[in-house]
Amino acid sequence: MEIILSAGSPKPIYEQITAQIKAQIMNGALEPGQAIPSMRALARSLHISVITVQKAYEELQRDGFIVTTVGRGSYVAAPNKNFYREEQQRRAEECLQQAAEIGRAAGIPADKLCELLRLFYEEE
Question: 3-class SS at 123?
């Protein structure tokens, strides 16, 4: 599992960790049942506080992406379709927001953007 932290990012470190682990789970790089590093091991490898990793793991567990068992460690949770769909919807919303900003700046009418989205959505 590879995590890359950016000191220049406006996101707190725990959010960077959370986002990257979620992305790796959602793209299949981390599979259900697969062990993830212990909080101490990840903190040591990233040269950060264990408390920061703990906060990230707590968020991942709360969102249903990992399960943690005392004495056994943390593992990728079985896929939860609701969380997966919500996360994908959030990603789509970000892209659509960017498209809307580009469209506004370029003077592209909203109905033209909607038409383009419909075309891409129905394309196989």
Answer: coil
**pTM, 2 dp:** 0.69
- Please tell me whether residue 76 adopts helix, strand or coil conformation: strand
Q: How far apart are CA 64 and CA 86, in angstroms?
A: 12
Closest of 7, 16, 2, 19 to residue 90, by C-alpha: 19
CB 76 within 8 A of CB 36: yes
Q: What is the pLDDT along the chain (124 residues), one digit of tens a residue?
A: 899 999 899 999 999 999 999 999 988 899 999 999 999 999 999 999 999 999 999 999 998 899 998 888 999 998 777 777 887 888 899 999 999 999 999 999 999 999 999 999 898 6
Rounded CA separation 116/16 (Å): 32
87: Cβ–Cβ under 8 A, 6 or more apart, which residues? 22, 26
Q: How far apart are the first and last CA of the chain?
A: 33
